UniProtKB/TrEMBL annotation:
Cell membrane is among the record's keywords: yes
Protein name: Uncharacterized protein
Domain of life according to the entry: Eukaryota
Keywords attached to this entry: Cell membrane, Glycoprotein, Leucine-rich repeat, Membrane, Receptor, Repeat, Signal, Transmembrane, Transmembrane helix
Ranges annotated as spanning the membrane: 601-624
GO cellular component, one term: plasma membrane
Amino acid sequence: MLEGRLPTSLEYLCKLKEMDLSYNKIEGGISEILQSLSRCCLGSLESLDMSNNQLSGHLTYQLGQIKNLSYLSLAQNKISGPIPSSIGELSSLKFFDVSENQLNGTFPLSFGQLESLETLDFRNNLLEGVVLETHFSNLTRLTTLTASHNRLRFEPNSSWIPPFQCETIELGHWHLGPKFPQWLKFQKKLFVLDISNAGISGVMPTWFLNLPTQFEYLNLSFNQLTGGISYLNVKDIVDLRSNQFRGPLPRVFRNLQHLILSNNSFSGSLFELVCNSSSGELMEVLYIDKNLISGEIPDCWNHWQDLGLLDLGSNNLTGKIPPSLGHINLTVLNLRNNSMFGELPSTLQNSSLVMLDLSENHFNGSVPAWIGDNSSLLRIISLRSNNFDGHIPHKICDLLNLLILDLAHNNISGTIPKCFRKLYSMANRNYRENYMYVSEGLYLSALLVLKGRQDEYGATLGLVTSIDLSTNSLTGEIPKEIARLVELRSLNLSGNLLTGNIPDNIGNMKLMESLDLSMNRLNGEIPLSLSNLNFLNHFNVSYNNLTGQIPTSTQLQSFENFSYMGNHLCGPPLTKNCSTKDFSTDVENNGSSGEGSKVNWLYVSIVVGFVMGFWGVVAPLFFIRPWRHAYYRKLDHIYAKLYVFWANMDM
């Protein structure tokens, strides 16, 4: 691999026809290289490939002097500045790729002079301004136009007919709307189309769905397109997420591999899509989350043998998880935020799950022990907000790659397993592959409560390490072994029945950013080692039985008073002075002090006495009819006696 700058002797290669120095670590200014090449080999150089290097600087007018250049690739460098207008002088240029640089300025009009140009790729730059029909006036041979992720605007006349017949058009993140681009109807050879995030709105035109070509890749995501879709004639990948499509799910080509319909308003059931034997045979990714799909998940997944990622979260699904889902080789199963119920089918243990998200449903039963059988794969488990009970199975400790464990808001009891220390990826700094990536611009996502707020994590999910066991019925002490999880960023044990002291060694978790131990029965002092947590930006130990002085550190004194209330603590940031021998407690409604306990029991006794006395009289009258009749007859008799008495008094 070449490193550093190119030698100045390059200018003496007068008969050089082709130079390929791609995939090296060549540094220096591109302008110097162009200047050297223009001195001697102006008429000989036909191909120049310096992609995937570390070139910087600006493109200069000398580029237009290399007259016979037909192939130019400077992709994936650090080249900045505008594209020189002299580019239009390269009449032989067929291939031009400056993608993934830092080019800015406008798109030169001189591109319209490149009659031989077949491939034009300048995606992932900072070009801006308006693109005109004139830019394409003579590009009759253009077959590939890849220019996504720039700041360009293209709104040609509705009657414009492009001079080219492209096979690939990628204009994602351009401004093409608000109307659907009419000029696309004249593209008869189109296989790849990306017009995502382009400000397009309105109903999808029928002519587009009836184009004679079969797409291999179609990306219309992040627009405001509406209407229904009956059939998608796409061979490999469809991405329609984040639009306003409605109606039943579309029929798809039998060999489709990726179907991404997230965040729309599709409705109806899954039956026709899932149980149709002609669909799903090669499907690898199925994302229909954040729609209005209803009914049960059908039990006919056996022919979806290539399906790896299934996301049906945030719909209106009911019923149980069908057993056939466990007969396919799923790596991701997301059923978050539905109304499903029942116990988890044992067939799921046959899957090779990396992520299991069943949060915000009504699943019940115990957390199955088999969840830890596949010790090499599971990285994310979220069973949050369900009705799971029983103990935390010790088999979870065998999940060496586990990064996120969320069992919050269930009915789980028992103690926190000491074997949590075996959760290797939470305890060791090791290389983590980017397992979150799904396809272009699409990542696995999970809804997590970190730092006191709920957010959806996508591209950054791989950076999160978290344990959330909050709002359960866990008892016992916080095991000191948990402090061995030194890679953990977030730990939430709030809202349980935990007792004992906060482990003294908790300060070993130096990467901790969020720690919540509130609303338990913890006692003792806050460990001095907590002052070592320099990254801590969310901390809560409120409503426990903690005593003593809050340790002094930059972090612990920066939190609000409510992080400490409901304890017997003193010192900054609280106003209570620790020098006072008998400082008052700020216990609020937790009944932790002796006097508070007496007062509370007095109130309890009064209430219990009243209830028992009241029901001791009322209950027999309510449930025993003869007693009730006798009671009311007696009342009538007393009332009559009183009436006669007062009548005689008036006389």
